[in-house]
Design goal:
single chain, alpha/beta, Spore Coat Polysaccharide Biosynthesis Protein SpsA, Chain A, UDP N-Acetylglucosamine Acyltransferase, domain 1, 30% strand, binds uridine-diphosphate-N-acetylglucosamine, binds magnesium ion
Length: 448
């Protein structure tokens, strides 16, 4: 169920699109559902249906089919939206909530086992909470047998004292569920069709309804507000960092001030300083040192890479033993080959920097291919944009680009050549030459 707006989020974005650990809530739920190896997954979509469908597809591909719930008239109505697809399916149906993202596959398997073993028509996953405010309560009779679920808003003061809550996750006999759904009425505070009413209806009609009480309350907590989202983010982040330290051999100078996506991989003996963010599916090899204020998004780093303070690295690749920053910006497929160095205030966009090549200070290198063992002097700029189009710059191996050189693309600097400080290079430079001036001209040929 992922059709609701999530009014309590006070957002224009559908609640299930809000991200936790860099993945939308619905992505978490779909991933867990997939781990159970189901025959198929139906996702009920409504608010921002297209965006939600995209998030679903990017997580589980065509294993899931999205079903539109045009108007959001409650969780019972949400499931009923898939009546055509499911009604005559004899199988067992597991219903998950798009806003309960931390549920583990193992717990769901236990719920399904309990459902099968007890030959139930409906099994509800419940937990006990210290503070059950807002949740539906599990009401039992004097003998402890399940009677019904009452929503917080509809509950009497005594019922509100009940600490056992409905997780919003259930296992059903599909046919019994759809038969009972026809009998659900919106006779409640919110005027909605509650899926929770199905349990009482099934019981009344002589079916078997059970409750599986789970011990880990946090796992089934729903996210309804941004404050809850932030709590979960913190929890997930702490778990990720803890397992990186304990199982992964990664050092965190201050674990409470590091932001590592659950999707990222960090090699042994990496050292992460405070205020570092590593986002998306970034991969860091062994022994990398990431200093404060750096952000690395969807990028690959080899072994022993140093990223100095306040560097931003997006969609880029850095081979082993390179050094980046401080204050460097790598983006759009920047690629640094072994032992390359990109230093202070250097921006590299869609460029390849060869082995052992250095660009230490204040440069812009865009749409450039730079060979091995070349030195890019301070203040060098590849002038890649003529106002309409982008052009490429080629700098071959063993070149020395003098400080403040402007390379007006398209342009090529041949191997072993040298540009004088302040040159404006508008024409290709042959190999083994010294050029200088504005515009730069060949001053002499260098001995090989
Ligand atoms: C629901 C349960 C409550 C339970 C809680 C656990 C009902 C009536 N109540 O309440 O007993 O304790 O979950 O988290 O089911 N949705 C739709 N279409 C709709 C309405 C909701 O797809 O018309 C989706 C939402 O997008 C969400 C999920 O169903 O992913 C749950 O809806 P929400 O409004 O959050 O229900 P709760 O009030 O939390
Ligand atoms: Mg909810």
């Amino acid at each position: 169920m992922a059709a609701g707006l999530g009014t309590r989020m006070k957002s224009k974005r559908a609640k299930v699109l809000h991200e936790l650990g860099g993945l939308p809530l619905i992505g978490h739920v779909c991933r867990t559902a997939k781990a159970l190896d189901p025959k198929t997954i139906f996702v009920i979509v409504g608010h921002q249906a297209d965006e939600v469908a995209k998030a679903v597809e990017s997580e589980v591909g065509d294993l899931a089919t999205c079903v539109l719930q045009k108007e959001q008239r409650g969780t019972g109505d949400a499931v009923a939206a898939a009546r055509k697809q499911l009604e005559n399916s004899p199988s067992l149906l597991l219903v998950l909530s798009g806003d309960v993202p931390l549920i583990r596959a193992e717990t769901l398997r236990k719920l399904v086992d309990e459902h099968r073993n007890s030959r139930n028509d409906c099994t509800i996953l419940s937990v006990r909470l210290e503070n059950p405010t807002g949740y539906g309560r599990i009401i039992r009779d004097g003998t402890g047998a399940f009677q019904r679920i009452v929503e917080h808003k509809d509950a009497t003061p005594e019922e509100r004292h009940v600490r056992e809550i409905n997780s919003g996750i259930y296992c059903f006999d599909t046919r019994q569920l759809f038969a009972a759904l026809k009998k659900v009425e919106p006779a409640n505070q919110q005027g909605e069709y509650y899926l929770t009413d199905v349990a009482e209806i099934l019981l009344r009609d002589g079916n078997r309804v059970g409750v599986y009480l789970h011990s880990d309350a946090r796992e089934v907590s729903g996210i309804n507000t941004r404050a809850e989202l932030a709590e979960f983010e913190n929890l997930l982040r702490r778990n990720t960092i803890r397992s990186l330290m304990i199982e992964g051999g990664v050092t965190f100078i201050d674990p409470s001030h590091a932001y590592i996506s659950a999707e990222a991989q960090l090699g042994r003996d990496c050292i992460i300083y405070p205020d570092v963010s590593i986002e998306g599916k970034s991969v860091l090899g062994e022994g990398c040192v990431i200093r404060s204020g750096a952000r690395i998004t969807s990028s690959h780093l080899g072994n022993n890479v140093t990223v100095n303070d306040h560097s931003l690295i997006v969609d880029s690749e850095i081979e082993s033993n390179c050094s980046v920053g401080p204050f460097a910006h790598l983006r759009m497929n920047a690629r640094l080959e072994e032992k390359a160095t990109v230093g202070n205030f250097v921006e590299v966009k869609k460029s390849r920097i060869g082995r052992g090549t250095k660009a230490m200070h204040l440069s812009y290198l865009g749409d450039a291919t730079i060979g091995d063992d070349t030195n890019i002097g301070a203040g060098t700029i590849t002038c890649n944009y003529d106002g309409k189009h982008k052009h490429e710059t080629f700098i071959e191996e063993n070149v020395k680009i003098g400080s403040d050189t402007m390379l007006v693309a398209p342009v090529r600097v041949g191997a072993r050549s040298v540009t004088g400080a302040g040159s404006v290079v508008t024409k290709d430079v042959p190999p083994d030459s010294l050029v200088a001036g504005v515009p730069a001209t060949v001053k002499k040929t260098l001995k090989k």
